[in-house]
Amino acid sequence: MAIQEKTREGIIDICASHKGEPSPLMPILEEIQKKYGYIPLEVQELVSKQMGIPVSEIYGVVTFYNFFSLTPKGKYVIGVCLGTACYVKNSQTILD
To answer: What is the pLDDT of residues 21-30, one digit of tens each?
Structure first.
């Protein structure tokens, strides 16, 4: 998937606004996630190029935190607790 030019420019602007910060990666990724809804590999490569951060480090952060997504999500995200307490209260039935 190729990044559209308008999106590319937006990501470059986000990166530029965080240049010079001591640890810019998290704020950059949070802003991209909020604006575009997900952070695909092509975007990670662009951030890497703009910020001089290895793609492997960016990918590690994106996959470690569950609030980042590699794929687009729907308009509404629904979460169902599957912890022990929720499970005994039939959360699996709700999920099914």
So the answer is: 888 999 999 9
